[in-house]
Amino acid sequence: FFSSFLLETYALTKVVVDTCARKFYLYSNEGETREVDCDNVDEFMNVLELVRAVVDEDAVSYSEPLVKNPL
User: Fold this and answer.
1) Which contacts qualify for 67-71: CB closer than 8 Å, 24 or more apart?
2) CA-to-CA distance for 2 and 70, rounded, in angstroms?
3) 3-state secondary structure the chain
4) N or C end of the chain: which has fewer CB within 10 A?
5) How does strand 23-28 pair with strand 60-62?
């Protein structure tokens, strides 16, 4: 997914990590957005490791977890 995104001459400007949904949202300098769904925890952790290794720390953010208020 990264290779096809980067080979199209886009620059990856932002990655949002949604830990609850096990998804990654990739944003380019051209306004392009890609969504990466992970099927399981192992796949999610592998992609997260890749993101942390190749993407500048300032370009990575994490979505707020959804929390229910106890009644």
Assistant:
1) none
2) 39
3) CHHHHHHCCCCEEEEEEECCCCEEEEEECCCCEEEEECCCHHHHHHHHHHHHHHCCHHHEEECCCCCCCCC
4) C
5) unpaired
- Of 38, 1, 32, 3, nearest to 19 by C-alpha is 38
Q: Which residue has the tokens 């707020």?
A: 64
What the block records as the tokens of 11 is: 């620059």
